[in-house]
Amino acid sequence: MGWQPTRRSALHGAPFLLLGAVRAARAEPRFTAASNTFVVASKSDTEGALTGAMIAHVLERLGLPVDRRLGLGPTLIVRSSLLSGEVTVYPEYTGNGAFFTGTETDPVWKSPQGAYETIRRRDAENGLVWLDRAPANNTWLIAVNGALARREGLATMHDFAGAVRRGLIRLAASTEFVESPAALPAFEKAYGFNLPFDRIISLPGGDTAVTARAAAQGISEVNAGMVYGTDGALSALDLTVMSDPLDAQIVYEVAPVIRAEALGRHPEIAPALARVFGSLDAPTLRRLNARIAVEGEVAEAVAARYLSETGLLP
After folding, report:
1. 15-137+252-310: CATH superfamily
2. Helix%, strand%, coil% for the chain, nearest 5
3. Which of 127, 130, 218, 310 has its CA 20 to 30 A from that of 54?
4. What is the 3-state secondary structure (H, E, C) of 131-158?
């Protein structure tokens, strides 16, 4: 399995197209070792824009000049720009370290602490520092229609497996979720069930807003949907997320990743961002993501209001 084309990774297209995209991203001036400007980037997704904006606000409050590059592109572009020095800091997920290092089958990535320590150690060799991570796992999960979950007592993937065996589940999910060994097949193997293909509506894209809404509203008789752990839709819809007690999935906790030389010049960044990311548990991220993805607010405004209301700015 390679990079996952999800909102965490979003890597698409042929290599030569990606190379062109990287070159395009480098066309504008960026951070250099001789510059004091901090280029804050993010990927092209809701949570990336939210957490990237938080980083930018904190650095500005510390009196540092900031150049925002939020929504810069997919993982390959943003990660490459960080490694080259064109970006100073951006929010990344610990589980993507499995694909950065080509070790995605290593069980260490299914442990929150193990994943964090592993990528932190490996990226130190690249001149990068992983700052404190948020206590929220944005991994692949399955959410069940709230009424069904309450009626059948469904709370964990063990419960979900039993509901599958009783013929109660009809799942909406992306084709990748259905076919990738790291997704539905990993759940099936860990929890001992097999969801028949005629009980699955497979979608070509990875839009969890569609799969979550289908599960909540019973569209096409769907009552379960592929979701991510911090999806905004989970706060807005009557869904019950199945917990994964056997850790079938890789852990994806978001953390700021910063160039070591920049942090060396301004060590005050680490504790300031630690306070912010330490506050971002799953319910908090779901609520903030919902303001953007469901209610249509701007990520910058949501980030600024949250930091102001919580008193987390330095």
Report:
1. Periplasmic binding protein-like II (3.40.190.10)
2. 50, 15, 35
3. 127
4. CCCCCCECCEEEEEEHHHHHHHCCCEHH
Q: Is the pLDDT of residue 4 over 80?
A: no
| pLDDT above 70: residue 91 | yes
Q: Domain 140-241 carries which CATH code? A: 3.40.190.120
Residue 274 pLDDT more than 60? yes
Q: What residues are paired with 130 via a beta bridge?
A: 257
Where in the chain is CATH 3.40.190.120? 140-241
Which spans in 42-100 are helix H? 46-61, 75-84, 97-100
Using the predicted structure, report yes or no on whether residue 18 has a pLDDT greater than 90.
no
Q: Measured between alpha carbons, how far is residue 270 from residues 21, 160, 206, 276 in Å?
A: 31, 40, 33, 10
Taking the C-alpha atoms of residue 140 and residue 137, their distance in angstroms, rounded to an integer, is 9
Whether 200 contacts 164, CB under 8 Å: no
pLDDT digit string (tens) for 185-211?
Answer: 999 999 999 999 999 999 887 778 899
Which residue in 66, 80, 131, 25 sits closest to 303, CA to CA? Answer: 66
